[in-house]
Design brief:
Layout: E1 11-16, H1 23-36, E2 41-46, E3 56-58, E4 64-66, E5 68-70, H2 76-79, E6 85-88, H3 97-107, E7 111-116, H4 129-135, E8 138-141, E9 144-145, E10 152-153, E11 155-160, E12 163-164, E13 180-183, H5 200-207
Parallel strand pairs: 1-7, 1-8, 2-5, 2-6, 6-7
Antiparallel strand pairs: 3-4, 9-10, 11-12, 11-13
The protein binds adenosine-5'-diphosphate, magnesium ion and zinc ion.
Magnesium ion binds at residues 23-24.
Amino acid sequence: MIRNHPARGGWIEVVCGPMFSGKSEELIRRMRRAEIAGQRVLIAKPQIDDRYDISHVVSHSGHRLRAVGVGEAANILSVVEGCQVVGIDEAQFFDDAVVEVALTLANQGLRVIAAGLDTDFRAEPFGPMPELLARAEIVDKLQAVCHRCGGAATRTQRLVDGKPAPFGGDTIQVGALDAYEARCRQCFEPGPDVCAEPAAESRLLARN
Ligand code: ADP
Ligand code: MG
Ligand code: ZN
């Protein structure tokens, strides 16, 4: 496969995959290389993610790089003023405006590298990630090691007391290591379909 970065102007790269697949590591690696090349770089991450350290991105293996916590996606634009390369970690937690922000920055000539979960614990597309993936020039889908069988994990299993989390649970729950596992398609276990609030579709069906 031949891959070229655009020779002129900006562009969007997306690094996605399940938890533990090395997204943050890869983001940090790319940002470090840009720094070595003398470019001004900055990572923004959603403020919701206060695991470990608010002022750094820290990977599960302990790699770290400075990062700025940002409340809403639109604020990224002012935070990264003067930068040439903008990293966004945990992009799935940002509101939909993150897509417009990435496009704006790329159109202004910046290199944007967004890392995030492509799917949630239900294995459904996660927040703004599908649109980011569609709009990006360069996409990488990383795999983790399946906690069950050692195969190639593409999904994130959420566990509550060791059992698959119910389908209707909150999507966002920034998590402890013991509550999540990387799983392959075969080992992934969908949670029981119990939810406090019936989903919009099933409410409609019930009425008809
Ligand atoms: P992500 O940002 O995708 O959640 P990180 O970059 O934070 O991932 O962490 C990747 C690191 O996690 C790996 O280099 C490895 O040291 C560690 N790790 C722990 N569990 C696993 C697993 N099941 N599969 C792969 N790597 C794992
Ligand atoms: Mg990460
Ligand atoms: Zn498996």
